[in-house]
Design goal:
single chain; 199 residues; alpha+beta; 3-methyladenine DNA Glycosylase, Chain A; nine-stranded antiparallel beta sheet; 5 helices; DNA-binding
DNA sequence: GGAGCGATGTCCT
DNA sequence: GGACATCGCTCCG
């Protein structure tokens, strides 16, 4: 069993495309009702700040997106389309508003609990448990109320990211999904060939 | 397996 | 008032 270490704040203090790429293969770990829910990150997207029309931070700092302008390594959770949450991790030094959207996980631990949180049949495929940003949040029980603004570099937060030494063999780079503005920029990163990548 | 579409709350103009 | 970093269902091939 290889040693697992929690990613430190320095890991996130870089441009979002670099962090998005580096997060592939890491483990997103959530403590939930005394159990551990965890999955390997297989898909991410990078969002910049004032120079990225697709980013929430593009129009400047507001009450909703304030976390993005703070220090790196904090969760930015927002509510979208009236029913879904999306989880981002802030990056770049304080004052710069980059972030990484976590889009899909390969479930690793706590699969029965994640299946239940998703409302799926217990013995079905695990492919759809966390393949998409809304599904990922539902599978881990992540909401804006419970997780926006928490520090993901602390083991006490109940949500953090670990490195167990595993590295993805091949990374595919494509345009980002579901956006209208700046839709051509290649800022989506995925583990090539993974069944757990969305759409 | 893919296109079309409705559901639904929050934020900013 | 409109847009929205989505999902799951239908209908069609």
């Amino acid at each position: 069993m290889p040693r697992r270490t929690i990613l430190s704040r320095a890991f996130y203090e870089h441009p979002p495309d670099a962090v998005a790429r580096a997060l592939l293969g890491k483990l997103l770990v959530r403590r939930f009702e005394r159990r551990i829910l965890a999955g390997r990150i297989v898909e991410t997207e990078a969002y910049f700040g004032l120079d990225d029309p697709a980013a929430h931070a593009f129009a400047g700092k507001t009450k909703r997106n304030a976390v993005l302008f703070g220090p790196p390594g904090f969760a930015y959770v927002y509510f979208i389309y009236g029913m879904h949450f999306c989880l981002n991790i802030s990056c770049e030094p304080e004052g710069q508003a980059g972030c990484v959207l976590l889009r899909a996980l390969e479930p690793v631990e706590g699969i029965a609990a994640m299946t239940q949180l998703r409302g799926l049949a217990q013995h079905g495929s695990s492919r759809l448990i966390a393949s998409g940003p809304g599904r990922l949040c539902q599978a881990l029980g992540i909401t804006r109320e419970t997780h926006n603004g928490i520090d993901v570099t602390s083991s006490r937060s109940g949500l953090h990211i670990e490195d167990d030494g595993w590295l993805p063999p091949e990374i595919a780079v494509t345009p980002r999904v579901g956006i209208r503005k700046a839709a051509e920029r290649p800022l989506r990163f995925a583990m090539a060939g993974s069944r757990f990548v969305s759409r």
